[in-house]
C-alpha cells in the first residue's frame, strides 16, 4: 500500500511538472506573439526610410537628397554611395529654394568626377568655401579649401575643363544690387586654388566661365539689365576688360544678358 502511494505521488508530481512546463511554454509564445504584434504596429505607425529614388529617372548618373542625405548613383539607383557632406551645408548662404534639388552649377557628376561646392563655418563671417570631390565614383573623397572668410555666398559655379584645369566662380557679401564676384583657378585637379585678379565690377553676376586655360568670361546684370555686360580675360585672369557687343536693333532690349560662349570652329558662339 505504501509503495502504491509513492508511485501515485510520483505520477502526480510528474503530471504537475509537465502541465506547468506546457503552460509556461504557451504563455511565452503568447507573450512573443503580443510583442511581435506591437513591433509590427510600431513599424506601421513609424515606417522606416523609403528606398532612394534618383532625382532624374532619365539619367544613369544622378543623385538623391532623400532622408536629408546626399547620395549618388552610377547605375540608375540600383546602388548608392553616400557623399560625406551634411545636406544643409550644400544650401548655406543666400538661397531661397526648397532644398529638393542641388543648386544649378554648384556640383559636377559624371563618370570621371563627382564634385560638390559648399560653404562651412561657425558664423556668418568665418566661413570657408570648400570643394569635396571624388575621382573613383565615391570610393574615396578629398576636401579642399578654396577660400576663407566668406560671407553670405550667393552665386556659385564649379567646372573642370580637363582633369587638371578647373574654375570656381562665386559672389559673397551682397548688399542690395552690389557684390564682388571672385574667380579661383586650379591647375592640379583641385588640390590647390589660386585667386585671379578682380574685375572690379560690382554688378550682380549672372554667369561666368572659361573655355580654355587662358580665356574666361564674366557676365553681369540680373536686375533689369538693358544690354549685355561681359568682361573677358585672355591671360588666365591676370587682367579683365569689357567686351563690346554689336547687337542688331531688332534684338536690342531682347538680348540683354549673355551666357558663357562656346567654341564653334574658329569663332565663339552663344546658345
User: Tally the helices: what do you get?
Assistant: 1
- Give me the side-by-side strand order of the main sheet: 4-5-6-7
Percent helix, as a range, is: 10-25%
The chain-level mean pLDDT equals 83
Order of helices and strands: HEEEEEEEEEEEEEEEEE
User: Class of the largest domain in CATH?
Assistant: Mainly Beta
- The Rg value, from CA coordinates, equals 32 Å
What overall form do the CA principal axes indicate? globular
Strand proportion: 25-35%
The total number of structural domains is: 2
How many beta-strand segments? 17
Query: What is the terminal separation in angstroms?
Result: 113 Å
- Major β-sheet profile: 4 strands, antiparallel
The structure class reads alpha+beta
Q: Which CATH-level-2 architecture of the largest domain?
A: 6 Propeller
User: Segments where pLDDT lies below 50 for 5+ residues?
Assistant: 38-46
**CATH fold call of the largest domain:** Neuraminidase
Descriptive notes:
The chain has 271 residues and is an alpha+beta fold. It has two domains: 48 residues; 168 residues, Neuraminidase. Helix content is 16%, strand content 30%. It contains one helix and 17 strands. Strands 4-5-6-7 form a four-stranded antiparallel β-sheet, with no helix packed on it. A hairpin with a 2-residue loop joins strand 16 and strand 17. The longest helix has 44 residues.
Amino acid at each position: 500500500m505504501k509503495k502504491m502511494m509513492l508511485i501515485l505521488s510520483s505520477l502526480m508530481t510528474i503530471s504537475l511538472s509537465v502541465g506547468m512546463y506546457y503552460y509556461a511554454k504557451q504563455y511565452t509564445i503568447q507573450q512573443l506573439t503580443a510583442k511581435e504584434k506591437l513591433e509590427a504596429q510600431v513599424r506601421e505607425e513609424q515606417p522606416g526610410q523609403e528606398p532612394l529614388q534618383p532625382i532624374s529617372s532619365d539619367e544613369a548618373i544622378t543623385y538623391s537628397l532623400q532622408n536629408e542625405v546626399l547620395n549618388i548613383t552610377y547605375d540608375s539607383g540600383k546602388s548608392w554611395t553616400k557623399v560625406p557632406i551634411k545636406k544643409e551645408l550644400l544650401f548655406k548662404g543666400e538661397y531661397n529654394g526648397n532644398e529638393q534639388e542641388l543648386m544649378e552649377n554648384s556640383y559636377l557628376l559624371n563618370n570621371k568626377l563627382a564634385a560638390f561646392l559648399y560653404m562651412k563655418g561657425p558664423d556668418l563671417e568665418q566661413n570657408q568655401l570648400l570643394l569635396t570631390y571624388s575621382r573613383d565614383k565615391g570610393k574615396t573623397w578629398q576636401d579642399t579649401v578654396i577660400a576663407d572668410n566668406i560671407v553670405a555666398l550667393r552665386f556659385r559655379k564649379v567646372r573642370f575643363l580637363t582633369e587638371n584645369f578647373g574654375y570656381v566662380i562665386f559672389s559673397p557679401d551682397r548688399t542690395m544690387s552690389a557684390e564682388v564676384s571672385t574667380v579661383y583657378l586650379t591647375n592640379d585637379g583641385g588640390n590647390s586654388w589660386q585667386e585671379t585678379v578682380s574685375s572690379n565690377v560690382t554688378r550682380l553676376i549672372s554667369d561666368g566661365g572659361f573655355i580654355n586655360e587662358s580665356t574666361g568670361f564674366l557676365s553681369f546684370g540680373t536686375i533689369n539689365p538693358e544690354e549685355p555686360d561681359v568682361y573677358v580675360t585672355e591671360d588666365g585672369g591676370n587682367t579683365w576688360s569689357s567686351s563690346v557687343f554689336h547687337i542688331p536693333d531688332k534684338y536690342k532690349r531682347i538680348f540683354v544678358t549673355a551666357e558663357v560662349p562656346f567654341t564653334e570652329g574658329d569663332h565663339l558662339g552663344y546658345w
